[in-house]
Specification:
4 helices; alpha+beta; three-stranded antiparallel beta sheet
Length: 202
Amino acid sequence: VPERVKAFYRVFPEGAIRRKLIFKDEGSRVIVEARVYAVYNDESTLLANGFSEKVASDEGVDKKSYLENAETKAVGRALINCGFGLLEKYEPSVIEIKDKRGNVNSSPYITVNQRIWEFRSQNPLGRILSTLGYEVKEGSKGFAIFYSKVYKEAFERNPNNYKSEGTAVEDRESGYINPKNCIPNAETSAIGRALGFAGFAT
């Protein structure tokens, strides 16, 4: 993440990275959102946002610093959505080309990161904006719904002038990549669908 931050400020020296605590329960679970702007004092220059979720654990890095780790992860995800930290070309891993039943898809699959890279190559000042629409949390169960929109220009002031949108729901019990990260999983899926509908999936 530090390298992504450095790369961002090299390209956007007047930019800004802002974080916000979206949710904290009475226990030890947090949701953090990060937003990245091309110009620090202009809200219309929003390039992308990103979400993360962390739960305090009895050991490891999340024992005492789970909030800080959630913030760092949210920033990293937002910068990825801006195009920083992406590889130009790479082969999708086995886990990326499996469907939710664990079956390997024999047809070519364009990963979400690849779609973001293609989008940013054509629209470096485009905007990818996600919204946590709804979440239900019942112990280890529950689900989250995300909505993502893709804009050709970050400086678009009319929120209705988006190119495409996508919606995704993630069930905590069926998260096939990482069941403990229901929030970012749902966000990634929504972004992938929005970019797919914008033509970045073939």
